[in-house]
Amino acid sequence: MNKIATYFHFDQYHTTFRREIVAGFTTFISMAYILFVNPQVLGESGMNSGAVFTATALASALGCILMGVYAKYPIATAPALGINAFFTYSVVIGMKIPWQTALAGVFVAALIFMVITIFKLREMIIDAIPQDLKRAIAAGIGLFIAFVGLHGGGLIVANKSTVVGLGSFNVGTTWLTIFGLIVTAILMVKHVPGGVFIGMVATALLGLVTGLIPMPSHIISTAPSLAPTFMVGVKHIGSINTIQLWIVVLTFLLVTFFDTAGTLVGLAEQAGFLVDNKMPRVGKALMSDSTAMLVGSVMGTSPVGAYVESSAGIAVGGRTGLTAVVTGICFLLGMFFSPLLGVVTTQVTAPALIIVGVLMAQSMQNINWKDLAIAIPAFLIIIGMPLTYSISDGIAFGFIMYPITMIAAKRGKEVSPIMYALFFIFIAFLWILNVG
């Protein structure tokens, strides 16, 4: 045990085994939904849902364990939401591209990802982002996950007249979210250790007692076979032979790149890991998620990336790689306890996401709001993420505006060449996604 504590630098981060284990489990509970959502989304493309379930669990576990043991960060990885929807609804259904070819696109994007990580291009880009914009990314992610929680919990719903509106209080599960939010808020205000996790447990128990959450019929089940999706993408690389398909590959690459980069920066800001505006061991963190993305594409799932729900584990005190390792182990066990995971509904995780959003939004206080050349792009990042429901789109808004406002302020020389390059890349990125 002492060797583990020494390896993960417990003394440096003032943490304990209990805290790291609770943090890892909290992170897993917050993102366990991906085990069910990813097979559902990719299943609509024609992929075998059972195989996707197993691929999701294994790819997530690998990424988490690598992130913990190699990069030593409490950051979990899993197939990213949003990009899986792009895979199914835009590429397969919209463009009528076979899922086998789309999976080959993910594999090629993962290979490119690995190459640019090895040459430290991703690391250079992250280091080039100004401190205030990194803080804006952290705050924007906070608003984004809070919005995800409010919507998932039923407190915020779609409204044709006003775009979004208040949910119905005639729905029992909405009251479950309200209960969890109140309990979690009280625990956090009173500084109760593990308040976020305790709040989720209390919410789940109330849901089971009231019947709002179905009691699982059984606890243990065998993991479905990987055979229907394993190596399919690799075998269909030759199908990527048109400009349209290479645009698909580029989109997989760009969305995953900036979603992961933004998430890593935001979580590092939240946990206090940034040193002189740089994230220590960022190269190892990027290599961990690149490897998980590559292996995940071989197994049969959409791109893997760092998860914002890691902020839930960080919020309860997770500061070392042991947190991510525990999360990875939970994903492995989750393959065999899938019926029990059904208890963790969106109403259970919603209060945690909302409270964590509050914690991450605190990064806004350190942004120089009096400097409009910085404040305007920072604000666009913060507001863009929840309103577009996309971390990468929010980053695009701010990164496009940043060189413009700096040049207008006659401070164009302060903008690094990389940020100027990103200006053009993001314009092309938005064009490809929305026009091309």
Fold and architecture overview:
InterPro entries: Azg-like, Azg-like_bact_archaea, NCS2. This is Transport protein. It comes from Lactobacillus selangorensis. It is found in: Cell membrane. One of its GO terms (molecular function) is purine nucleobase transmembrane transporter activity. With 436 residues, the protein is mainly α. The protein has two domains: 2-143 and 241-338, no CATH class; 367-436, no CATH class. It is 68% helix and 3% strand. It contains 21 helices and four strands. Strands 1-4 form a two-stranded antiparallel ribbon. The chain has a two-stranded antiparallel sheet with strand order 2-3. Helix 5 (49-71) packs antiparallel against helix 14 (282-299), helix 5 packs antiparallel against helix 16 (321-334) and helix 7 (99-118) packs across helix 13 (243-271). The longest helix has 29 residues, at 243-271.
Distance between the termini: 55 Å
Gross morphology? globular
Q: How much of the residues is beta strand, in percent?
A: under 5%
Mean pLDDT: 89
Strand order, sheet with most strands: 1-4
Q: SSE order in H/E notation? A: HHHHHEHHHHEEHHHHHEHHHHHHH
GO cellular component, one term: plasma membrane
Pfam families: Xan_ur_permease
Family: Belongs to the nucleobase:cation symporter-2 (NCS2) (TC 2.A.40) family. Azg-like subfamily.
Main location: membrane
